[in-house]
Design brief:
This protein is α/β, with parallel strands linked by helices. It has 17 helices and 23 strands. The chain folds into two domains: 283 residues, Aldehyde Dehydrogenase, Chain A, domain 1 (3-Layer(aba) Sandwich); 188 residues, 3-Layer(aba) Sandwich (Aldehyde Dehydrogenase, Chain A, domain 2). The strands form six sheets. The chain has a seven-stranded mixed beta sheet, with helices on both faces. This is Succinate-semialdehyde dehydrogenase/glutarate-semialdehyde dehydrogenase.
Length: 490
């Protein structure tokens, strides 16, 4: 690994990351490298080993060698090591946040919040490791006893996304480790550096050799295929697009391999006429523009009831105009860059399509800055459901506002998608709140809030937004096998 001064200048302890994130010499069969750039400045941050199938197999073999011993530790012993990792993440949180901002672009304050969120998952599952319970069952006769125990699934392959590269590592592998599974992590090629730093800290935390394994790769296809088709890997956890999720699911199907997928979203954000409009505007800013709109739970379609449409649109556009676009290391910045040129192209494509069909730009609408992949936070009105921005996930700072008349109409429109990850709505009438919350076909529903993610709550979607849940006590169950034992002859 080669780390440049463009990254090192932001770190308080550069030697720690530079030394510990380096893989042992002689481990790699390839001399190929790939580059990681800062999307705000275009600066080269690092060159990493571009691993392939052979390196993945080495990682799997190491995980296999460590699996029995790791599963054989007591829950308390695994918990203590997770606590160590949690402590180290907090101890080095400033450097982790700086690495995250450099490679992903998000404002430093958001990066610090993400690192804290990652640590919260480690804390939660360090505690949950001690709460893996079985059960006894009343037997039909007195000569037997019936009980259920829970055991680790085995080796887990975890593939993490670029938009939350720290918290997704923690959210995926902390329950696996708590359950007694060994893991192989493949971070996104755009943002692998914070995962590398967190991996370095696992060594200091005391994880035995082979329990946590890291694979860097510029292209994920070969790595993903090997993880999905290698019989030694018992479970795949993936966060990314629905298109890639379908491919991985097919690859896992021959072995009936356990999977947890968090896939695409197309989140509706609904404002009813009895809502507190100022609070709804605040929530929409959070749900739409956090991480420059590059979140799987980002509000993609803003539905506003006709009676309050003009008021909401005016107040919302005014607030959006006050957002500051820039380098994440600038303390004034509230919206960072898009991750790459493809993301810029999609923003422009969605805006052009909407304007061609009669939509109007209330604010923003253009790329900005001389360097980097910056785009103005954009609000569009006079939007119809036939437009691309209403049908597809934009994954950028673009907020289309759609007018609706009644609850039945907006529920139909909100549910008219293959996705079902997150939804939001603002209302005050409790009868309406319960009715809409239950009618929305989404795995997570935020009522009068624009932010709902928590390590204590199950995160995941319905329909083609995924399978399984992450976080909460339910997230641990996805890494455990249930075994029924019948004791006869008693």
């Amino acid at each position: 690994m080669t780390i440049t001064s463009a990254l090192l200048k932001h770190l308080k302890e550069p030697a720690l990351f530079e030394a510990l994130a380096e893989l042992p010499s002689g481990e790699l069969s390839t001399l190929k490298r790939f580059k990681v750039f800062n999307p705000s400045t275009g600066e080269l941050l690092a060159e990493l080993p571009d691993m392939g199938v052979e390196e993945v197999r080495i990682a799997i073999d190491r995980a296999e060698a460590a699996q029995e011993k790791w599963a054989g530790l007591t829950a308390r012993e695994r918990s203590n090591i997770l606590w160590n990792w949690h402590r180290l993440i907090l101890q080095h949180s400033d450097d982790l946040a700086a690495i995250l901002t450099a490679e992903m672009g998000k404002p430093l304050a958001e990066a610090k919040s993400e690192v804290a969120h990652a640590a919260a998952y480690l804390q939660w599952y360090a505690e949950e490791a001690n709460r893996i319970y079985g059960e006894t069952i009343s037997a039909p006769s007195n000569d037997r006893r019936m009980l259920v125990i829970k055991q680790p699934v085995g080796i887990v392959g975890a593939i993490t996304p670029w938009n939350f590269p720290a918290s997704m590592v923690a959210r995926k592998i902390s329950p696996a480790l708590a359950a007694g599974c060994t893991v192989i992590i493949k971070p996104a090629e755009q943002t692998p550096l914070v995962a590398g730093a967190m991996f370095a800290l696992t060594r200091l935390a005391g994880f035995p050799e082979g329990v946590v394994n890291l694979v860097y790769a510029a292209e994920g296809e070969a790595v993903g295929t090997e993880l999905c088709t290698n019989a030694k890997v018992r479970k795949i956890s993936f966060t990314g697009s629905t298109e890639v999720g379908r491919i991985l699911m097919r690859q896992c199907s021959d072995q009936i391999k356990r999977i947890s997928f968090e896939l695409g979203g197309n989140a509706p954000f609904i404002v009813f006429d009895d809502a507190d409009i100022d609070e709804a505007v605040d929530g929409a800013i959070q749900a739409k523009f956090r991480n420059a709109g590059q979140t799987c739970v980002s509000a993609n379609r803003l539905y506003v009831q006709a009676a309050v449409y003009d008021e909401f649109a005016e107040k919302f556009a005014h607030r959006v105009q006050s957002l500051v676009v820039g380098d994440g290391f600038d303390s004034a910045t509230t919206v960072g860059p898009l991750i790459d040129e493809r993301a810029l192209f999609k923003m422009k494509q969605h805006i052009d399509d909407a304007l061609a069909q009669g939509a109007q730009v209330r604010c923003g609408g253009r790329q900005c800055g001389n360097d980097g992949t910056f785009f103005q936070p954009t609000v569009i009105t006079n939007v119809s459901k036939t437009m691309k921005l209403a049908q597809e996930e934009t994954f950028g700072p673009l907020a289309p506002i759609i007018r609706f008349d009644d609850a039945d109409e907006v529920i139909r429109e909100a549910n008219d998608t293959i996705y079902g990850l997150a939804a939001y709505f603002y209302a005050s009438n409790m009868k309406r709140v319960w009715r809409v919350a239950e009618a929305l076909e989404y795995g997570m529903v935020g009522v009068n809030t624009g932010r709902m993610s928590s390590e204590a709550a199950p995160f995941g979607g319905m329909k083609q937004s995924g399978i399984g849940r992450e976080g909460s006590r339910h997230g641990l169950e996805d890494y455990l096998e249930m075994k029924y034992i019948c004791l006869g002859g008693l």
